[in-house]
Write a structure and sequence with these properties.
single chain, 463 residues, UDP N-Acetylglucosamine Acyltransferase, domain 1, four-stranded parallel β-sheet, globular
């Protein structure tokens, strides 16, 4: 049986052709929500986690080559970056030299194939909103598909639920907004439901490396593959040291009850524990969302649970139309793929350098990526110039949307390799070959221009 709201949600998903395993997974989380589950992880239930560093690990060339030859690469590519004003896949954004995220990802994989003489598959988990544009952009790489394997599989979708009664929301103004993705924890459900997990195993692959398409640092590195294969672990996540910019983000910890590693997201942290969440000396590591898993171990875990891993619930409340705060409040049921680490008893984490974690979530990040802070090598791997990534804070009013951002950097990004901080308040347009040195703050009450060749340094500039 089930509640009226759940039955209506089931019917809506079935009518839209959603996979039955995905419907049952949604029903599992709906019942948790219905019974008051919040997914919160109190500070009292966890303790800090320590881990080994990749810098201290020795992996032979033979082990690395053997491991990468048994690995498939999956890129999460379902996001539209609507917060940046985009209505197509974020991965189509130009990074530099006319190359998009997708171009660089494809070339990274093709280079690894050539270097190691392997059929390293590259597969995108797209959403119904990103599939067409992504496949069209990849069509130029005729040698990218691996025989017998698809270039994409689709993540599932689920109805948004009204906060007031947990019924599926109706929004005739834009029916597409009635749906949402179930978070990237849907990866495992979609792998099983589409049959891709079995196809990869049948083709002889043993490991999968998963990362976000907006993180160009997440290359399918053979050395990391060799470490994972040698560890014998069923599941692992790459971690980085948290910095002040990560204070509000999630972190790794060890659960006191059973000793398993958990990934606590901000939305899973009780309000009274937010101070502990932000304590970088206590919780030192956050997730890169670069993860590795053994296909056979994942299949077994899914099989014994009827296809439902039972990842921790994330209850996300927001307006049904993100662009209209006055639209009805809805709950999006989500899970995080990294939280699967607690499913596996012998799961591992490993500290990697920040060069493997270069996410682009805002135009602040995009400016740094387009600047000379990074170079793109011949193998299409990012090289970071210097030891430090500058902090960039651009005025949301003028720079948050990609279209407006591009208008204000018509000659390209300024040089940031010598910068520690760039804060821009007001409407500034940058000319060619602008250089930022040290800590710089720009402020203006009307539209202003930074002339070509200007060296910005020495503090605050008002106009």
């Amino acid at each position: 049986m089930g509640s009226s709201g759940l039955n209506r949600a089931r019917e809506k998903m079935a009518a839209a052709g959603v996979d039955e395993v995905a419907i049952e997974t949604f029903a599992h989380y709906y019942r948790l929500l219905e019974h008051g589950e919040t997914g919160l992880i109190p500070e009292s239930s966890i303790e800090p986690l320590t881990m080994e560093s990749l810098a201290d690990v020795e992996v032979s060339d033979d082990d690395a080559a053997a491991a990468i030859g048994k690995t498939a690469v999956i890129k999460l590519n379902g996001g539209l970056a609507t917060s940046m004003g985009m209505d197509r896949a974020k991965s189509l954004l130009c990074v530099r030299r006319g190359l998009s995220f997708l171009d660089i990802i494809a070339r990274q994989v093709l280079h690894q194939r050539q270097r190691y003489g392997v059929d390293l598959p590259l597969i995108f988990m797209n959403s119904f909103r990103t599939s067409r544009d992504t496949l069209a952009a990849l069509a130029r790489y005729g040698d990218l598909p691996v025989e017998g394997l698809p270039l994409e599989f689709l993540q599932n979708k689920e109805p948004k639920l009204l906060v007031k009664d947990l019924s599926p929301v109706s929004y005739p103004k834009d029916p597409d907004l009635e749906w949402c993705p179930p978070g990237h924890g849907d990866l495992y459900t979609a792998l099983r439901g589409t049959g891709l997990l079995d196809k990869l195993m049948a083709a002889g692959y043993q490991y999968v490396f998963v990362s976000n398409s907006d993180n160009l640092g997440a290359t399918p590195d053979a050395r990391v593959a060799g470490w994972f294969a040698r560890s014998g672990a069923p599941f692992a996540i790459e971690a980085v040291r948290r910095t002040p910019s990560d204070r509000k983000g999630g972190h790794f910890a060890r659960r006191r009850l059973d000793g398993r590693i958990v990934l606590r997201e901000t939305a899973q942290t009780p309000q009274e524990d937010r101070e502990a969440l932000a304590d970088l000396s206590r919780h030192k590591y956050c997730s890169t969302n670069n993860l590795w898993f053994d296909l056979a171990a994942m299949k077994q875990a899914l099989d014994v649970r009827g296809g439902i891993l039972g990842l921790p619930l994330i209850r996300n409340v927001k307006p049904v139309d993100p662009a209209d705060p006055s639209s009805p409040q809805v709950i999006q049921i989500e899970t995080a793929m990294g939280s699967a680490i607690e499913v596996f008893e012998d799961a591992r984490t490993i500290e990697v350098g920040r060069d493997r974690f270069v996410p682009v979530k805002t135009t602040n990040d995009l400016l740094v990526l387009r600047s000379d802070v990074y170079e793109i090598r011949d193998d299409f791997v990012l090289d970071q110039n210097g030891d430090r990534i500058p902090y960039v804070d651009l005025d949301d009013t003028h720079y948050r949307l990609v279209g407006e951002f591009d208008k204000r950097f018509p000659e390209g990004a300024p040089s940031l390799r010598e910068a520690t901080r760039l804060t821009v308040e007001g409407d500034w347009t940058f000319g060619r070959d602008v250089r930022v040195v040290g800590e710089v703050e720009l402020e203006a009450s009307s539209a202003k221009r930074v002339d070509s060749g200007t060296v910005l340094g020495g503090g605050r500039a008002d106009a």
